[in-house]
TrEMBL record:
This is Josephin-2. Its main location: cytoplasm. One of its GO terms (molecular function) is cysteine-type deubiquitinase activity. The keyword Protease applies. It is an enzyme of class 3 (hydrolase). It comes from Cricetulus griseus (Chinese hamster).
Length: 188
């Protein structure tokens, strides 16, 4: 008599946009929010609001392919009633109150290549981290699929490695209330 196969829980549905043009900021926003709320057109509109009288907008690529700066990310989150709090890398990560944080957006150095030829240049790349059903995921739009990091220890290890590379910036995506009360930080 054969036994029925053991039922496995289905993996959670994790929203993950893949890289297109230089739209990593748009992808990071949508990935951290776990739905498509922003587009290139929406980001361009934010750029126009941030620099209405500018012929060459300082908040995006001159070529119109994206490459949005932190001001666009912050304005996009503010429009949803959220906030981006800059994480001071001098603080120990043990002070980060992860349960109070909706997600994280990192700005990392990214190598530039032409096909298989690596160039001695570095660009900046926006990456989202988010917890879904108790598991933190690396939602980098350059990945084929979300990368499970595990629980709080896993995401702290990922952040430690990213910050150790230098030139990494971390933004905490939080509600306005969490930003105002500062409860994203363990002070004891």
């Amino acid at each position: 008599m054969s036994q029925a196969p053991e039922a496995r829980p289905s993996p959670p549905s994790v929203y993950h946009e893949r890289q297109r043009l230089e739209l990593c900021a748009v992808h990071a926003l949508n990935n951290v929010l776990q739905q498509q709320l922003f587009s290139q057109e929406a980001a361009d509109e934010i750029c126009k609001r941030l620099a209405p009288d500018s012929r060459l907008n300082p908040h995006r690529s001159l070529l119109g392919t994206g490459n949005y700066d932190v001001n666009v990310i912050m304005a996009a989150l503010q429009g949803l009633g959220l906030a981006a709090v800059w994480w001071d890398r001098r603080r120990p990560l043990s002070q980060l109150a992860l349960p109070q944080v909706l997600g994280l957006i990192l700005n990392l150095p990214s190598p530039v290549s032409l096909g298989l030829l690596a160039l001695p240049l570095r660009r900046r790349h926006w990456v989202a981290l988010r917890q879904v059903d108790g598991i933190y995921y690396n939602l980098d739009s350059k990945l084929r699929a979300p990368e499970a990091l595990g629980g709080e220890d896993g995401v702290r290890a990922f952040l430690t490695a990213a910050l150790a590379q230098g030139l990494c910036e971390v933004l905490l995506v939080v509600t306005k209330e969490v930003e105002e009360t500062g409860c994203w930080l363990h002070t004891s």
